[in-house]
TrEMBL record:
The chain holds residues 1 to 302 of 390 of the full protein. This is D-3-phosphoglycerate dehydrogenase. Residues 107-134 form a coiled coil. Transmembrane segments: none annotated. Keywords: Coiled coil, NAD, Oxidoreductase. It is an enzyme of class 1 (oxidoreductase). Catalyzes the reversible oxidation of 3-phospho-D-glycerate to 3-phosphonooxypyruvate, the first step of the phosphorylated L-serine biosynthesis pathway. Also catalyzes the reversible oxidation of 2-hydroxyglutarate to 2-oxoglutarate.
Amino acid sequence: MYKIKLYNNIAPIGIQQFTADYEVGDDIENEDAILVRSANLHNIEYSDHLKCIARAGAGTNNIDIDACTQRGIVVFNTPGANSNAVKELVFAGMLLASRDIYGGISWAKTQQNNENLAKDMEKQKKKYAGTELNQKTLGVIGCGAIGVQVANLALRFGMKVRGYDPFMSIDAAWNLSRYVHHDSDIDDLFRNSDFITIHIPLNEKTKNTINKETIAQMKDGVKILNFARGGLVNNDDILEALNTGKVAKYVTDFPTPELVNHPNVIAIPHLGASTAESEENCAIKAAQETMHYLQYGNIRNS
Ligand code: MLT
């Protein structure tokens, strides 16, 4: 009998995957495996039996990978299981950054007593006029499971797409449309994009990828989207660039107090993967990979 310890909000369908050979719960001791969504596992006590940690999601920065490596504990995630959800929200963000949908909705909500609504609506057309995605250039930093989906959808919006990824997997390369221009130098992507979206993991090398120097290379009025991790963008530098107008909009799934009130920041409370479908996909995949690892000692995820 294998023992599986659960940490926070694993969709029930994931737990249902485990067969009768597994004891599963959040109060399990001497666990063989941990299943986690986004709870912080950095300072927890691991059981001596622990063989693997499955992260039901993409980012693994809530897990102390170095400590796990030292103890021979394998950590894996569920690549691709939430990419559709993130892709869709990236496009919602891109549309919000181009059309003042939020301003228009807020205005409409104050009009319940307006007897001249039809006439006044005419005046709003100019005030809330925006721009189109069609024919704009989107730069996608990181062409993994999410970046590939974003790039391919952007083509359907009529966008020109550039992708940068120094470590593209064979699967990702296969799934990427041949109409995506591949930048071997990230600076080319910075220089040529109207929108930049970032889809890479956060680590010591990628921290502050968007900073004063990289922003200086970008087009004036660039719009930046961050649905990956807050630390990939330097908040002080992006705020300064928003104040000068160098960056026209910053759409982020990682609000911080200094950012949220800026008129050109669109901040969302880390909802990228928060759909019923994505949570179920991640939970199923994490549970199945955990059983596979415990039985066969290898990982099928790329
Ligand atoms: C992920 O890393 O899977 C996403 O950011 C979603 C999440 O952590 O909830």
